[in-house]
Amino acid sequence: MTSSIAENELQSHFEATISADLRVEPRDWMPEGYRKTLIRQIAQHAHSEIIGMQPEGAWLTRAPSLRRKAILTAKVQDEAGHGLYLYSAAETLGADRGDLTDKLLDGRQKYSSIFNYPTLTFADVGVIGWLVDGAAICNQVPLCRSSFGPYARAMIRVCKEESFHQRQGYELLMTMMRGTDAQREMVQESVDRWWWPALMMFGPPDDRSPNSEQSMKWRIKRHTNDELRQRFVDMSIPQAEALGVTFPDPDLRWNAERGAYDFGEPDWSEFMQVIAGNGASSVERIANRRAAHENGAWVREAATAFARRASTKENAR
Ligand code: FAQ
To answer: Ligand 1 pocket test: which of 75, 275, 285, 289 has the largest number of ligand atoms within 8 Å of its C-beta?
Structure first.
């Protein structure tokens, strides 16, 4: 009886915190469903950042100049940093990083659909910066106001770095568009391949998104998948016009009544296939991640042994 009264009080305090738009912190009581949803979303996000190093990383040894190589190295390193902030945020909820990695490797946790596509030309580096980081920013800026403190704070820094990534991608594409016909064709061909997968990054349509409603109530998510997808389409079209490229969608047109662009339906059966692990590069991405994890085992063992020794010494004092 007493414990259920206490539980009710905790639940009311949690709900009051959410409705007052305050942050829930790791020390606070929270419903198990809230904790589970956050671990699921933050882990998936962290895995995406780490797996997301691979498509562009594949071009590090083939960048066309030292300048482009230095920029790309810095960007790929930033993605590693984002993954680490996010794993740390998940750990504040009681998740174990090793366990999250196991779940990624055996397919129990997902990573973003977008990283299951191959990078075929150097223009893909620019298009990933422009469209993929652009979509990531569109999705993540509202997450800076997410109700869970460590996630919201991690997102502030991540978004600043993603904005820089987006600009470097756009600048790379601008440079190529000022180049030869072959370079312009390479950019357009790359945009044609990435446009639809970029729209799918926002997740399934709202009427097929099982988690959105509850995540919005808990203010983990601030907008639905479709709202953010629309925002991304509206912001990308003037950028494409300035660049001189088109998007491969015959239904794309301004709708004056809605004050927004109409656009076609992404191929959701492709999306379902990709998130089920059947994307063009899915097997390669996980195999590379598994190899990196196994090759790094000695580093983790050494770091753990060092930390254990340091704490034994500290206790002996
Ligand atoms: N890919 O009910 P919903 C980046 C899953 S970071 C794979 O709508 P929710 C930076 C979803 O998990 C990109 N799976 O789910 C970068 C759920 O399955 P589950 C990552 C997806 O959570 C740039 C099921 O479908 N960003 O790009 C996807 O409410 C360049 C039903 O979906 C984030 O993770 C998808 N696209 O909404 C790095 C942002 N969409 O878990 C390197 C944070 C949905 O029940 C280079 N995450 N699913 O088995 C979010 O905002 C949300 O989790 C959504 C999905 C919007 C992704």
So the answer is: 275
